C-alpha cells in the first residue's frame, strides 16, 4: 500500500535567486534519503513561491521494506569451539547484534572461514520515519547566505514560520525548533491572509486551495501567467520580452501574477538607451518596451504581486520611482560629459586594484603594454595593421576611465558601455569607442565576444592581466569558489582566440603579462615565472580547455590526445583546429589503423635513450630500409600539410603511407636486440615515425578504442 506526501516549509520572503536551487535540493535530498531508508517512490515534485517551499511525493509506501542482512563477525575458530558450540566471543558477537546464537553460521570467504550473524530487520511505518527525513531535508538545504533568528540554532534563508506535513491524511509528527507540523498553510499575505486547511496529501487540491486564496504556487504556471500578461501589454507596440532571466526572477518575487503598463516622459529618451534599460531592469525589475528594431519607447511593464483593484495608484507609484531614477541618470550623463575620458585616466591612480598590484592607473599601463605586444604579434602574421595597433593602444589607454564617472558608480554593470558613449561624445575614433565597450565581453557564458579585432585584443589583455594578477597573489579558484571569475575570463580568452582565429603562444603572453606585475625582483623573476607561475596558469588553461570541450560534446580521449601533442596547446586556436580534425577523422574507416600506427610507435619509441639521429649504416633488415625510405619520401609532404593546417589530409596521408610498412616492421624486425647501437637506432627510427604525427597533431596513445 502507498500514500502520497505533501510537505511545505512556510517562511518569510526568500530572495528570488534562492528559490529554484532550493527546490532542486529538496527533491534531490528526499530522493537520496528515501533510498537510504529503503523507501521506493513513484515521483517527486517540488515547487514554491517566495513564502513557501513545497515538496509533493507520489507513491510512498506506508511501511519500510523488511530486509535480511549478514554481518561479518570473528573467525570461525574464535567464535566456535571444536565441538561447534559458541565460545564467549561467539556469544558476545550474537548479543551485540541482538540475535540468538542459533542465528550464527559459518561462511567461507577469501580470508578463510568466518562467523556471520543473520538478522532480519523489520520495516518501520513510514509515518514515523518521515520526521527524521524531513528534518534532514530542512537542515540539508544550503543557500548562498543563511540566517538564524531568536537564538535559533537552525540556519535557513529566511525565518521559518510554519510547517505543513501530511502523509495520506495524517499529520507527520515533525517539529523544527518549536514549530510543529500541521495541516495548515496560508493564503496571500495582502490579498487573503487566510489560514487554509489541507485535509490530505493531494497536490492538485493543495494548488487549488492556494489559488482560491490568491497564491499560484506552481512556478511554471506562475511564469506562464506573467509572460502572458506582459505579452498582452506589449503586443500593441509590436514588442516582446527579450530578457528571460528577468522573467525568471520576477516569477519568484511574486505569488499572485499580474502586470501593468506604465510610461515615462519622452524627454528622458535623450539618455543612452542602455542606461534607461539598466535602471528599469536591474534596479526596479521593470520590462522595457522596445520596437522590433530595438528602439526604446517611453513605456515599461511592471509586474505586481496583487490584483488590479488599485492599478491607477500603483501605476503612478511606479512611474514616480522610475522618474527619480532617470532624473539622477540624466544628471550623471550631463555632468560626466564635462570631463573627457582621457583627462580621467590620471585620476585612476586613486582607485585601487588588488593589494600589492597598485592602482587602476597601473593596471591601465599593463593592459596598454600587453595590448601592444599582442597587436604586434598579430601584425607579424598579417591579422592586424600598424594603424590597428595605434587604435588598440588608444582603446587600452581609455578602457578603464569610465570607472570614475558618476554613471558607472551608480550603475556598475554599465562599465565599458558608458565608456563607449563618453568616448563617442569626446570625438574618439568609432573603433576606439566600440573597443572600450567590447573589452569586457563576454560578460557571461552565453554573451557574445568582441566583434572587432581592436576590442578583442584589448579584451584579451584585460583578461590575461586579471588571471596573471590573481595567480601571482595566490588567488586561485578552488572547487566552486572563484571570486574573481577567473574561469569566466579563461573561457572568454579561449572563445576570442577561437572565433577570431588569433595565433598566439600562451606561454609567451603569460610570461609578458606576469613580467609587468610589480611583484618580482629581477633576480627571482625568471625562476618564479618560468618554473612556477607560467606552468600553473597553463595547467589552469589546460583544465579549462578540457572541461569546455567535454561540454561541447567531444570525447574525453580525443581532447586529451590533442592537448598532449608534442606542441601541447600553447596556440589555443591551433589546438581547437586539431581537435576538430581528429574528431572528424575518428569516424573514418581507417581511424583504427592510424591509432594503431601512432600508438605502437609511441609505446616502443619512447624507450629510445638517445637524442641522436637515425643511421642507415646500422640497418640490418630490409623492413628497416623500406620504412626509412618511405619516411624520407613522405616527410616533407606531410609536414607541409601540417604547416598549412590541413590536419585531416595529413592524417590520411600518414595512415596510407605508414600503416602497412610499420606492421611489417614489427612482424619481421626484433627491436630489442643485444647490440645497443642497433637497438637504439631502431628505436630512433620508430620515434621519428611517431613524432612526425604526434608532435604537431595529436598523441593518439591517449585514445581508448572500443574492445
Automatic annotation (TrEMBL):
Localization terms from the record: Cytoplasm
Span of domain DALR anticodon binding: 600-690
Catalysed reactions, semicolon-separated: tRNA(Gly) + glycine + ATP = glycyl-tRNA(Gly) + AMP + diphosphate
Domain of life, per lineage: Bacteria
GO CC terms, sorted: cytosol
Keyword Nucleotide-binding: yes
Any one Gene Ontology BP term: glycyl-tRNA aminoacylation
Coiled coil: none
Alphabetical UniProt keywords: Aminoacyl-tRNA synthetase, ATP-binding, Cytoplasm, Ligase, Nucleotide-binding, Protein biosynthesis
Record EC number: 6.1.1.14
One annotated GO molecular function: arginine-tRNA ligase activity
A Pfam entry, by short name: DALR_1
InterPro entries with a match to the protein in the record: DALR_anticod-bd (IPR008909), Gly-tRNA-synth_bsu (IPR015944), Gly-tRNA-synth_heterodimer (IPR006194)
Keyword hit for Coiled coil: no
Oligomer and partners: Tetramer of two alpha and two beta subunits.
Record HAMAP family: Gly_tRNA_synth_beta
Family: Belongs to the class-II aminoacyl-tRNA synthetase family.
Name of this protein: Glycine--tRNA ligase beta subunit
